[in-house]
Every structure is written in structure tokens, then in C-alpha cells.
Amino acid sequence: MSAPLLQSTLRELHTHLKRPRLWLVFALVVGLFVITGPFGTYERLAFPTRLGYWLVLHAASWACALTSIAFFDTLLAARMASRLNRMLIGAIVSAPPLGLVISVINFALLMRPLNAMQIAENALIALPIGVTFSLLAWLSMSSGEPDAPAGPGEATATTPGASSSPGAIAAATDSGVAADRPSLLDRLPVEKRGTLIRLEVQDHYVLVVTTRGEELILMRLADAIAEAGAGQQIHRSHWVSDAGVETLSRKGGKNPKLVVQTLDGRELPVSRSQMPAVRSRWGNRIRNS
């Protein structure tokens, strides 16, 4: 596995694991299995042992399935447009390793046989489990939830020279004029769908920064820009929305560089090839350092 693919897989896995909804479902599923004691565990195991068994089994199974899902989601991103399909492939491929994991845990904790037939049987049981994990992971990242109501920081205007504190961001964007809502926001969790400030490339991901937070999305910068609305790419790794520009400044000696101060407090360089477009678009916000 190449280093970039490994890094992207780990980043994708971290994205899944930081979703509170996924942990809530995990806790509910483990609790349900502990209380009901399926597959004879209620009669065979005392409550503390049953709790430990199902906790270990589900933790190992979820880790195996989600790692496979994250890997294939990353591996096939350039070849397959549907994220759900990529995740389902990862879930199907995870079934044999899941069968092995379940068989080893059953052998160690329940003294059940460990052989090829048992592994194959557990792999068949694990297949719908892996598919369920992929659906849960996809739903936790999907944009199928209704939009949150726009708050006071959801309008478009910015005030050059304003402070970049959270309160100032909300005040600076409160112009009373509704924004043309970028479709890119539909990819974000509801609580982070604020006014779009900027985009930044990070490996195979795009960091989307809004007035309500930031989120990594697995997509190309060009595709993200196409959904981002009014703004300007200022560098091969950076795009800034019209609403996200606080000021422009010249920094340096004989050949000063142009720098964009964004509403979230970052100073981003403008590449020489983009300087004419940036000056044309935001020339009224230039100040000398």
C-alpha cells in the first residue's frame, strides 16, 4: 500500500470514527446484544462475561469492517463516483476477515472450533453485518438531513479590516441579505453549514471552512470549486469565497507578495499566476503592510 493511500485511508477512518452518531449506534447495538444474549450467550455467560464478549466481538468486527470500507472508499474514489457503492464493495471484501475475527474470538472465549468451515460460516454471517456498517457510515456522512435554519452568521457580506474572532465573523456576515447557497454545503454536517469561507487541499481531501466550523471531504479541489459559488482560486491549494476575504495585503521587499487575509484569521499566499484575477476581483480590499 502506498504512503498517500495509507494516509488517506487513515484520514477517512478517522472521519468515520469521530462521528458521534456512529458511537451511539455502536453502544445501542452492544447493549441490545448484551441484554438479549443471542446465539446462546444469555444461558452460557454471566452478565459481566457476556458484556465483555459482545464488547470485544463488536469492537473487533466494527474495526475490521470500517477499515475495509475506508480503504476501498479511498482506493476507488477516482474510478467510481458513488461513495455508497465504494463502501459496499469494502463491506463485501471485509466479510472473510470478519469471519476469521469472529471465529478466533469464539475459539478464545467460548472454546468453539476454529477451522475453515467455521470461518466460512461466520463470513456468511458477517456479510450482512459489514453491509450494515457501510450503510451506517454512509448515512453518518450523507447530506440527506434537512438544512439547519440559517443563523445570524449566514449572510454574505464581509467588512474589510474586521476582527476574525467568532463574534466578529458572525457580525461581519450579518448583512441581512441571503446568500446564493453553494451546493457544496450539502456535503457538510448540518451543524457546519455556515457561510463558506475557503477551501484547502489536504492530500486527497478538501478542507471546507465555514463560519460554523470545518470539514474534510474526499473530492478533488476542482470539483469542490465547481460547487462552491462565488470566489476565486488564489493558489493551486487554496480557494477563497468572496464572503471569506477580509483584506489583501502586500508583503515583502522589492517584489512584494500578495496575501489574502481570510475571515477565519488565516493568511494565504496568492500565486503569481493568480495575482491579476485576485486584484481584479478584490482590488478594493488591498492594504499596504
UniProtKB/TrEMBL annotation:
Residues 196-284 form the HTH LytTR-type domain. InterPro entries: LytTR_DNA-bd_dom. Residues 147-172 are annotated as: Disordered. The keyword Transmembrane applies. It comes from the Bacteria. This is LytTR family transcriptional regulator. Keywords: Membrane, Transmembrane, Transmembrane helix. The chain crosses the membrane at residues 21-39, 51-76, 88-111, 123-141.
